[in-house]
Write a structure and sequence with these properties.
The complex is a heterodimer.
Chain A lengths: L15 H5 L12 H6 L6 H5 L10 H4 L10 E4 L7 E4 L2 E2 L1 H12 L4 E6 L8 E4 H18 L7 E5 L4 H13 L2 E4 L6 H11 L3 E5 L1 E4 L2 E4 L1 H13 L6 E5 L17 E3 H5 L12 E2 L3 E7 L7 E6 L1 H13 L8 E4 L6 H13 L3 E5 L10 H9 L3 E4 L1 H10 L13 E5 L5 H11 L5 E5 L33 E4 L13 E6 L9 E2 L3 H8 L17 E9 L5 E5 L4 E4 L2 E4 H8 L5 E11 L3 E10 L7 H14 L8 E4 L13 H8 L14 H16 L9 H9 L4
Chain B lengths: L4 H9 L21 H17 L3 H16 L5 H22 L2 H20 L7
Helix pairs in contact in B: 1-4, 1-5, 2-3, 2-4, 2-5, 3-4, 4-5
The chains are: A alpha/beta, B mainly alpha.
Chain lengths: ~700, ~130
Amino acid sequence: MAESKQPQGSGAQTSEAQIAVHWREEEYVPPPPEFVEQANAKDPAILDRFREEHFPDCFKEYADLLAWDEPWHTTLDTSNPPFWKWFVGGKLNASYNCVDRHAEASPDKTAIIFVPELETDDHVAISYSDLQRQVNEFAAVLRDSVGLKTGDRVTLHMPMVPELAVTMLACARLGVIHSQVFGGFSGTACGHRIADSGSRVLITMDGYYRSGQVQDHKVKADEALAAAHQEGQEVDKVLVWRRRDGEYASETPMVDGRDFFVDALLSDYKGATVEPVSMPAEAPLFLMYTSGTTGRPKGCVHSTGGYLSYVAGTSKYYQDIHPDDVYWCMADIGWITGHSYIVYGPLALGTTTVIYEGVPNYPDGGRPWRIAETLGVNIFHTSPTAIRMLRKVGPEEPKKYDYHFKHMTTVGEPIEPAVWRWYHSEVGKGEAAIVDTWWQTENGGFLGSTLPALQPMKPGSCGPGVLGVYPVIFDEDGTEVAAGSGKAGNICIRNPWPGIFQGVWGQPDRFVATYYRKYNTDPDSKDWRDWPYFAGDGALQAADGYFRILGRVDDVINVAGHRLGTKEIESAALTVPEVAEAAAVPVIDDIRGRVVEVYVSLKPGFEPSKALQDKVSAAIDEQIGKIARPKNVWIVPDMPKTRSGKIMRRVIASISNFADVGDVTTLANPEIVESIRQYVQSSKVANDDVPRELTETEFEEIKKFGGE
Amino acid sequence: MSSNAAPDAIRTGARRTRGVRRHGPAGLAMKMTRQYLAGELSVLLAHLQAVADTEAARRDAWSLRHAAETAPIPALGLVIVRALAVGDDLCWDSLHRGDTAAFTRQAAVCDELREFGVCAGLLDEA
């Protein structure tokens, strides 16, 4: 991301969109012919089959990768937008699809290879028949001993161990909705998710290894239950897997009548079988909470039929997974990547998936490549952050090991071209096709990527929309930004797709407001075309249709070298219940470069006061830090706005800087400008807070602030 | 991350550098699937909490961990900056006491935090 840094000595505010357009377009890199030859998607006809005129029925191709108990009668039900339903009428079981059908066809084939962090511990290979037995036995425990039934929620707080996959699949077998919380999160974070989901059962583990040390994990269960209790949610049972047979890695005591060792419960269910519950396609399979959410946690609800079809299809065509591959995604199952591309996608296709317990650089930067060499991994999947770390600790390490990847993925964030090239030439030894994928927790699977055998790679760009997904870039006013225009905007998806989450658990209004309201043109419309999905990411589309994800296109204010996103500051101000709208603007400051001023308008019934100004300031201080504390908080009766409702930040920025506000006659409320100017500037004069006269460059910067 | 923990930590921990560290690219913090950054940071802050040898520092680390788990992803850069400041204080206090064992543990955590922040694009390299 070096290209995005502020030029030294400049305090100019620049939106990321403006920066991005100066990035150089990279040359295409073709996939190796050997890869193309064996690829699942090598016939260009697939691109035609997924063209918009074939939507939504094109996704039958994905659904046909699964075994259905009952066929669906409606591919896409749009009767209650934007709560889309896929494959309506169809019934299936995710556990059956990921386990039983492969166990029946190839019982001895390895489903999971578990790699413990300690290199002195042996790998554990679990065949599909072993997996079937383990899933059945644990499903029997959950149903008959714990009393869970279809539709119940159960929270999992587990590390990277195969028991996590077994637990998820056992839940899926019963139609129990699992909610795995990242194992590294605190007990408190887990407790909030327990409370939100209404789980009465927590499944955890006593401990695990990280950086060579055993971590006490069970202790977090007690914290989690205390946090859930504070929110009024009681947990009846805590099931504790043991990391090592016969040992207990935690110092916290087991609570009588509440905590149970899983191995003890399993002893009563040896050889038990549980018939998979045939679930409607739209039945929830799991909840995945997004972190970094202020206020109530946001549990994304993923469906059984649509989700599983989508991850099976994208695993086949974008990950190019064949049944005889050894596939390793180095993410954590606690995130959506792990759910989709460690557990559900690869197992639905009957391949071998690797689960690695620890950190990638333990005991040294060569560990991933030793694992790849030892296990014969030929598909590798990780994040740019991990790639940067591995490049830093061992740039020469990959070439020391005799492994060969045919395919590699990057996921989670944009990868800069220089790092991409190291990944390609050093990790991939120039032999692998790379897919640079863009998607989100809410999406189930990839949204933007190259189809590896048919679309060339371009470092720094994720590629076009994936099969059956039709992205578009809109500006703030909903006008489409043309490909190749050099302008950035908000990337949206024009159509529903089977992997899209079905809602935010218990918060349907939040689902609509966050993801659909912004660009919906008719709230009564039943036509999916009127409901573009607002992803919340900024992007730029090149003339070739490839997207480059930029981050959000909000402006940045550089305070003493700290780049503060205006959206963060405004979001923090909006957490004050009395505040209706907020806008953060820069003010020229000779010492700090820029300082922040915040304008807020209040909800009806509230009056401006010094206490309220302080409250807004404190909220920003608390949520972002002192560096973002505004120099002034101005409570105004209304914000100057365009006719489409956009706040004109350049106008208020000009007022704060005593600059000419320019032409305001086209605003929806031009009269408010003079009123605000009088109030703000007279206060500043009274407080001896008038900024010096702006330079020409500074004036231009303020005039352009906010993108209008 | 690195076996050369102490010098890095001194570099990150020097009081004179505090406050001039640049925050990472806040505006580049997109949604995508970057949730894992919050997760990794939470783990590292648990390590910070574990090496804190005063009640106040433990409280600070706990509160930063809470922030990492609940604040918007773009705010993580500032969380790391604040965590490094807490780590700096711990390192310097240990040095002043001549407690090299504590210093080494704390320096290693600072190093991990800094390396993670840089590799995740949340902190500038310099």
